[in-house]
Amino acid sequence: MSKEVLIIIGNGFDVFHGLPTKYIDFYRFIKFNYPEFFLEENEGLYPQIDEDIFWNDFETNISYVDSYYVQEVFSTGRFSIYYDSETKEEYNKYTIAKLNEERNKIIFLFNQWLNSIDILKCWYSNVDYNIFSYEKAISDEELYLHSSTNFLKVKKIFPNCKIINFNFTNTIELIYGVNKSKLMYIHNRINDKELIFGCSKEAYEYYKEFGYGFYENEEDRKNDYHHSQEAVNQFLEKTIKPCKKIISEKLHPYLNSINSFEFIFVMGHSLNQNDLDYFIYIASRYKTAKWIFSYYTETDKKNILSFVNKNNINNYLIDTMLNVLNYLITIYK
Fold first, then answer.
1. Per-residue b/e over 109-127, b at no fewer than 16 CB within 10 Å?
2. Which residue has the higher pLDDT, 107 or 139?
């Protein structure tokens, strides 16, 4: 039975399939393999770097740095030789360069981490019928998603759908056999020249308004020593995710041939603020579609309800990932 179905994939989809792709897993990878990253200088630039809160909102937080700590780190740490810049422009230029260097270091480690994940091995070890070794070939018929949803049925459905993948991993290709040409990796994929990171413009405006560091009074904020705040603001402006450009150059062309979708499935995406522009665009384009969302936490559910209410979506369903996959099977019967 032919259906027009759009599937939107987020990191929760990979986690559901047994992949260690939570950002806290990235933290553990760095802690074990690159312990030197957690030096005092980096803890200054990212004051929450050793806490779960940093890694739970990793994409936003690698764009967020603390201007109070910038001046502390740059005056006492390994950058101090450049700290006595004679002009504001000189200081800002150098500060932004160093902030970019530290941010690029995290992104490099992120690529290293992604390449360290053996997707198929993780998947096979997570299958309920785990009586097979990784080296032994196993058939599709023997693979099931958590002993309830038939993997083979889902695998036959996916190639017939439009799929927007927010993940950098190629799980859809490796596990479900979907050809890369049928997918759209909205922020690019593993081993591409550039992975797209960044906070939303709204997040940037919030941080800019409320500041980044601790100040005892407003006068201290206004006289921010050596223009740390101004330098951080200029840095953040460069890290805003170019959502409008991505919509124009990637998302719109990918969806352009489809006038309407009967169903839009959102699997494993928390609808955080950083990606809302894409969802708003899709909702405005396909007003009659029924939306089916998976959720994992109550925060996910809260984000979903906020999104459907603000975008006048009345026909929707919110359920667990397992039930969402089962629902996908039922509409193709």
1. bbeebbeebebeebbbeeb
2. 107
